[in-house]
Amino acid sequence: MSCRRIMILALLFLWAVPVAAAPSPAVPLDSWVYPALDKLTGLGLISSSLQGDRPFSRAEVARQTIEAVESGQDQSVPAIGRELVARLKKEFGQEIHEQRDGAEHAESYFKAVREMRFDYVFRDGADSSYPGTNARQFALLSNRDGLDYGENHNLEVSLAGDARWGKWLLADWRPLLRAQEDGNTGIRLLQGNVTLGLGPVELSAGRQSLWWGQGRNGSLVLTNNADPLDMIRLTNPTPVILPWIFKYLGEFRFDLFTARLDDDRDVAEPYFGGLRIGIKPTSWLELGLCRTVMFGGEGRPGVDFDDFLTIVGGENLSGNEDTSNSVAAIDVRIKLPFLWNAELYGELGGEDQADFAGFLPFFSKKAYLAGLYLPQIDPSGRLSLRLEYADTGMDTNIWYRHGIYTSGYTYQQKIMGHAMGGTAEDYFAELEAYLPHGLRMALSLDHQRRSIGSAVSEKHYQPALAVEWQCSPQLALRFDYAFDHVENFAYQSGDSRNLHMANAGVNWTW
After folding, report:
1. Cβ contacts of 417 within 8 Å, gap of 6 or more
2. CA-CA distances (angstroms) from residue 326 to 101, 225, 229?
C-alpha cells in the first residue's frame, strides 16, 4: 500500500474520531517547554505524547500537562516534577481550561503580545561552508530558525501574539526587530500563520518551522536549522486513537505540507513538500516514518496537486526518470521502565530514494542517528544525561546533495536537516540540571567531523553552557556561551581557529 493511500485512509478515519479542539498556536521549537516535557515523560508522568513530530501546539502542551497532573495523583512525584507541572499550569492555564471544558466552549480572544524576548548576541568568527551545496553557516548558530548574526555586537527584540475567532479560525504572528554592529538592521516576520480548525485536523498557511525525528541535537530530515518555510500544512496536532482495527496502532499523528524554496539557487524556486506519520502502539514504543521531496522549479517539469501527492507518496512522475530529490527516514523511540525510564532512540535515513516498497522504505544510501536519554541519574531526578551520535557519511557522499538540484538540501543557504551537513559525523553529550528556585543549567559538548573520507576534514570541538532562571511566573533570564575550536578550517590543512558566541536574554510572558 502506498503512502498516498495510507494518507487518504487515515484522513477518512480521522473524521470519524470524536475529538475536536479549537485551533491553537505552535510553541516555538526553542522554548523551555520541550526539555520540560521530555523531563516529565522521563519521570513517567506523560506516556501518550509523540515526541518525533514537533512543534507542539499550545493545546497539545495543555493536554500533556493534564496527563502529568492526573498521573501524579497515582504515584510519588519528585519535587522537580511538581515544579515543572506548576510552571506549565501557569503558562498554559487558558488552554488547560479549554481542554477540560471542551472545544464547544472555546471563546474568541485577541492577545496582541503573548511573549516578548530581548537578546544581546556576541559573535566572533567566520562561517563554514558545506561542500557540494550552496550552504554557509556559523558553526555555533545551529537550529536557530536560520538566524544569522554579524561580527561582534547584535541586538534583537521579538514579539509573539495570536488571536482566535470562535473555535474555527486562528492567526498568530512573531515579528523580529534586529540591530547589528555591521549595519544590518531591520524587521522581519520570523513566523506567522492563519489556521483553520477542521475537527480533529488543522489546515494552516504561513511561515513555520518543523522538526521531524527523534534526535535532539539534530535530525536527519527536518529541523529548524534553516529559516522557517512559507508552507501550506495539514495535520492533526493532537494524537488520536483511530477506530476499527487501526486502534492497535495506538496514538496516531500525521503531518503533510507543501512549500516553495528560494530563488537564489541553481534551480530557482523548486517545490518542497513532505509527509510524516507517527504511531505509538504501546506506552514504551514510538515509531515514525517521514519523507520530504524537492521537485519542479525553473526549467523542470511542472506539477499539479495530484503530482505532488504522487511524489510525496514515494513515486516518480515518469517511470524511472529522476524527477525529484527526496530524503526519507524511519525513526523509533523505546522507553525502558526497568532502567529508570531510560530512552533509546534512533533514525535510519535514505537520501534520494526512488520509491517506497509498501509501508517501509528500503534505503540504499543510508545515514543514521542514535541516542540515549537518561532522565534520572540522581535520586532527586533533577539531573539528566543525553548522548547522541549521527552519521551522514557511513556509505555514501551524497547526503543533502543532488545532481540536478545542485544547491543541495538547503533553504536560504542553510541545511534543512542536521546542521553538520552531509558526509559528516557528530558526537553530542549534554548534562542537564533542574535546580531549585526555577534554575536550569545545561552543559554540553559537541564534536563534528565534516567531509569525512576526504583528504582533509574539518573538525569542530564545541563545549557550551546554557543557563535559564525563571525568577518570576512572567519573567525568565537566559545566558548561553559556546566555544568552537576548529581544525582545518575551510578544509585547509593546518588552519586552526577559535570561535565564540555569547547570548544574554530576557523573556516576558503575559
Report:
1. 218, 219, 220, 221, 222, 223, 225, 327, 400, 409
2. 43, 18, 17
Report the chain's C-alpha Rg in angstroms.
22
Q: Is 83 helix (H, G, I), strand (E, B) or coil?
A: helix
Q: Are 360 and 289 in contact (CB under 8 A)?
A: yes
pLDDT digits (tens, 9 = 90+) for 94-118: 999 998 887 677 889 999 999 999 9
Report the Cα 226 to chain-centroid distance in Å.
Answer: 11
What is the total residue count of the chain?
510
Cα(200)–Cα(161) distance, integer angstroms: 23
DSSP 8-state secondary structure symbol assigned to residue 57: B
Q: Number of helices (H) and strands (E) in the chain: give both, helices first.
A: 6, 25
What region, left, alpha or beta, does residue 421 occupy, with left being phi > 0 and alpha being psi -120 to 50 degrees?
left
For each of the domains in the chain, give its residue range(s) and CATH number, in order of start: 3-509 (2.40.160.130)
> What are the tens digits of pLDDT across the range 282-311?
999 999 999 999 999 998 877 776 777 777
Residue 41 C-alpha cell reads as 515523560
Q: Maximum CA pair distance of the chain?
A: 66
Q: For the beta carbon of residue 231, count every other beta carbon within 10 angstroms.
A: 20
